[in-house]
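Hi again,

Forgot to attach this to my earlier email, sorry! This is the prediction with manganese (II) ion bound. I've pasted everything inline since the attachment limit keeps bouncing my files.
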Amino acid sequence: MNITFYCSRRVYSYCVLRLMYHKNINRYMPSSGGSMRQYQCNFVHMQSSTKETKKLSAVSLLPTKLKEFVEESMQICRPSNVHVCDGSEVENALLIDKLLKAGTVVPLPKYKNCFLARSSIKDVARVESRTFICTKNRRDAVNIPKGTTKGIMGNWMSLEDANEAIKTRFDGCMEDRTMYVIPFSMGPLNSPYSKIGVQLTDSAYVVCSMRIMTRMGTDVLEKLSSNEENCYFVKALHSVGKPISGLVEHSHWPCDPERTLILHKPEYDEIISYGSGYGGNSLLGKKCFALRIGSTIARREGWLAEHMLILGVTDPKGRKRYIVAAFPSACGKTNMAMMKPSLPGYKIECVGDDIVWMKFDTNGQLRAINPEFGFFGVAPGTSQATNPVAMDTIFENTIFTNVAQTSDGGVYWEGMEDPAQGVTINDWLGNSWVKGSKTPAAHPNSRFCTPANQCPIIDENWDSPEGVPIDAILFGGRRPEGVPLVYESFDWKHGVFIGASMKSEATAAAEHTGKIIMHDPFAMRPFFGYNFGNYLKHWLSMENIPNAKLPKIYHVNWFRKDENGKFMWPGYGENSRVLDWILRRINEEPNTANITPIGYTPTKETFNTFGLKVDFDKLFSVPKHFWTEEAKEVANFLYEQLDEDLPKEIEEQIKNLIDRLNFSK
Ligand code: GTP
Ligand code: SPV
Ligand code: MN
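Structure tokens for the complex follow:
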């Protein structure tokens, strides 16, 4: 039997193995490979000697369930080509070459294997208003607000409307394009915490980015086909889209902003994303899978999928702890995860910077994995002074998007050290730019996409299938006023209430404009996959897990400002002082806390401000007037948004807070 394969080299070897398995063949003779997508080999069939010549595509050899998904999607999207990705270096090089030719990326010769992509100006961030959870019943997807209040915790769409929207958008959208089949794993392939997904996309940029952000390629295919009876994967269909007019505005970055739609069907574990090639809209393993679909799976299976960093912190005595921290988008997760501690004797190691999957194990220990494989981090503000570890990570094998470019083949963004004399800058749109210009050099949501294992302080257990043990959970946000640097919850229920009460200034990570302070419970407002009331109940239910050792819960705020509008706290590496106090609390050191109406705050004696010029009392003050208003506002928000969905435990927490404030001085 003589067979021609249309695939790349690693998929080819995978195909050969599968074919041998299925056709009961136990010997084959490879003939030399042709071009990238054409391989031939002669199979020697031991049962019969009949020779047949067949053209076979890599798709037909995929595990049945995956083959069906690909074929159904091919019928709808009608691509001119299908490419099953193997994740190899060779494949990546070919795709980068294609992107270079199309002008989607340009090389950055100053660094090793780095590229710069410039997106369409209409496609620069997540679009929350066009992101929907699609379920049979609305209340499964979103909480139902009181009366005419507009719900802000995600959008719902009926399955019928979703299917109609998909039909009108995807029909023939990949004509003249290649459909890439990306098999990927969120989490180490051999971890019980991990899950597999397959993304179909018509964007080579997305393939190259998914290769950095996830464990992608043949190993995943092999895992899927090793257990065909239980071949489970999350289905993710993505197209950058084609405008109705047929006119593609930027040929190097096709998209359809007018009709962009990001849909999730948690009852089917499906993601369908149309019209955008940027970030969380298109790298579907990230927010769509690991958080929205992930949180619904987590609820079903009794674990947590959260918008959190994970770091390991070792104190001067050599005691190591792991903590997780939930801050809204562009509020400091990557920076904290890679912190260079200012306190002597401390060591920080990075496990993850954006997403955590965690579960109480049979011993009641909370364990966490980072489901991702890379960092998709905010570029502006990253410098040797603020995040030297990131600076040591990102100048190799990195795809930058929407940063500025320097004439010596490098990159530039706001906050970064100035380039050498004589070096000129082109802004993210490609126009010549000088310091002091009214417009920024880099887009505020410009990002680097870089492999996690390049981080010089990556934790030795970051890839470990059993995850790392978690001892503390932090919540935080950008709160210019009233909110102390750090406080600790009284107990688990109070901690859940603190998570529910989170607020933060809007950032450029999504389409919100202005510095309005928005509610962002658990830093998950844009990422809930199901009813926020049920999400709170799920968090509260962790108390009922037999022998669960519930970690302490904290709220932190690096962004409090003084009367002149200046940050009161230096932040970044100095945040290690907050960790120092948290570790004292975990280690149950005596006399470490003052009781305030909102929780425990540090005592002056046990919070290390040595060498810093900060006003401790101001930094930790809990102004009664501010907090009385805050409590009222939060109560109002929770009652109005959640109405019938508000858990009674949270209602009790609201009352307790108001009581404590009333009785306080
Ligand atoms: P996403 O990737 O969108 O989820 O963002 P993130 O939470 O990882 O935020 P990131 O660490 O990228 O920080 C976003 C911005 O906040 C950057 O411009 C940082 O320079 C700034 N930032 C981070 N930590 C601090 C801090 O401690 N103090 C101050 N003032 N700014 C900070
Ligand atoms: C965020 O917005 O929280 C991000 C960037 O981490 S994106 O991948 O676009 O969601
Ligand atoms: Mn994020």
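The pocket of sulfopyruvate (ligand 2) is lined by residues 126, 279-280, 286-287, 329, 354, 376, 509 (CB under 6 Å). The mean pLDDT is 94.

That should be everything now.

G.
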